[in-house]
Specification:
elongated, 2 domains, 33% helix
Length: 214
């Protein structure tokens, strides 16, 4: 290498380093300016996603203001942490919204939002995520059929626990033509969530950030 090449290489390194520093600074500035907006959009989307299971119910503040995480082992569907959004009115608990995942869908896990009022009655259920068969299993979505709406107002009393099954299995709940596995999976997940709430109501509304069942 000639001595003339050394300054040229050093100069190129300085220039590249300077450009890298400028780019890093620009990225940091962009992030600091957009992060609050992104967070606000994510918060708005979360609130919008929780709303459908509480239609017609008046509550205080935002749905995500009082949230806990129930860590496994627990009796809820799935084997992961379960977020629970606690809903209040006049300082009193009126509902809890569970995000649960059933593992035994026809095509894989099904993630559900299950709303239960303080008395143990379902305020609503919505499907958040699934991979069920189009035209059959995907009828669990509220915008594709009214099947999921049948759970509004139901509890462990109406129908009785033993009747929480599709009619083909001797239960009282409507089935999905050609998608019995999907329907059974969703119904079991809802029933298990109701059973958990019935047994752990006080813990769900306790003043803690995390609930762990041993």
């Amino acid at each position: 290498m000639s001595t003339a090449a050394i300054p040229s290489t050093w100069t190129s390194g300085v220039i590249l380093g300077g450009l890298a520093a400028i780019c890093t600074t620009l990225v940091a500035i962009t992030h600091s300016e957009t992060a609050p907006r992104i967070a606000a959009n994510e918060q708005a989307y979360l609130e919008q996603s929780l709303q459908p299971v509480l239609q017609g119910i008046d509550y205080d503040g935002k749905l995500s203001e009082s949230t806990i995480s129930i860590s496994p082992p627990h009796a809820l569907p799935g084997d992961e942490d379960v977020p629970v959004y606690r809903v209040y009115a006049g300082g009193a608990p009126i509902a809890a919204l569970f995000v649960v995942r059933t593992m035994d869908g026809f095509s894989g896990p099904i993630r559900l939002l299950v709303g239960i009022d303080a008395n143990g009655t379902l305020t609503g259920v919505r499907v958040l995520e699934h991979r069920e068969t189009p035209g059959l299993g995907d009828l669990i979505e509220a915008d594709k059929s009214d099947w999921i709406l049948q759970f509004n107002g139901k509890s462990l009393i109406s129908p009785a626990v033993a009747a929480w099954a599709i009619k083909r299995d001797g239960g009282e709940l409507d089935q999905l033509t050609g998608a019995s596995i999907t329907a059974r999976s969703v119904i079991k997940a809802i029933k298990d969530t109701l059973l958990y709430f019935d047994e752990s109501r006080d813990g769900v509304f306790a003043e803690t950030d995390e609930v762990t069942e041993k």
